[in-house]
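Field reference: "sequence" (input) and "structure" (output). Example, Ribonuclease HII:
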Amino acid sequence: MNKREEEKKRRQEEKLKKELDRLEAMSVYEREYAGWGAVCGIDEAGRGPLAGPVVAGAVILPKDEKILYVNDSKKLSEKKREMLYDEIMSRALAVGVGVVGPERIDEINILQATYEAMRMAVAQLKVQPDILLNDAVTIPDLKVRQVPIVKGDAKSVSIAAASIIAKVTRDRLMREYGQVFPEYEFASNKGYGTKSHIEALKTYGPTPIHRRTFIQHFVQ
């Protein structure tokens, strides 16, 4: 092995060690509550957009198994999220997804719809969780013990994994809606209130996937 190859190997080893150290730091809650049994992370995607559903993910990861580069979904590129989605789906002990659409959001408000999506995600799990790690919230009407963690998607590897599942699931749905309603550019804006999205909303009016309670300022 020449010096260039040795240097490349050294940098790769340093990079791997740094990533393992980061994941170790993000596993503090998982270690703390490991004695309870199955630890489940929960997070959501899509509370703020003008259109589309709110989606929740629930993930139970194997104890002491590290999935490299799992992080808060907002800190990852779309390509990286898609890769990690497949990795999580193949290696997690259980994954649940809950989807609540615009009509229900308008009916019960976005916070209650988010809770509903989270309960749906937990109900989908094939492994019964013993403790839930939540991103900052306490979900009503669940008997499982819950631990709300502020900015949990950046502090817990389980919540981060759930954030990736929720985000990728929702983004895929919005790309499909983008094919049905191309004027709104849902594939790129994912339903958020970008300038072009608001202009399309004013020009063409709302679609069936718009949240009526969210768009009152833009359409009559």
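Residues 3-204 form a domain with the Nucleotidyltransferase; domain 5 fold (CATH 3.30.420.10).
The helical segments are 3-25, 28-32, 78-91, 102-108, 110-124, 157-180, 186-189, 195-204.
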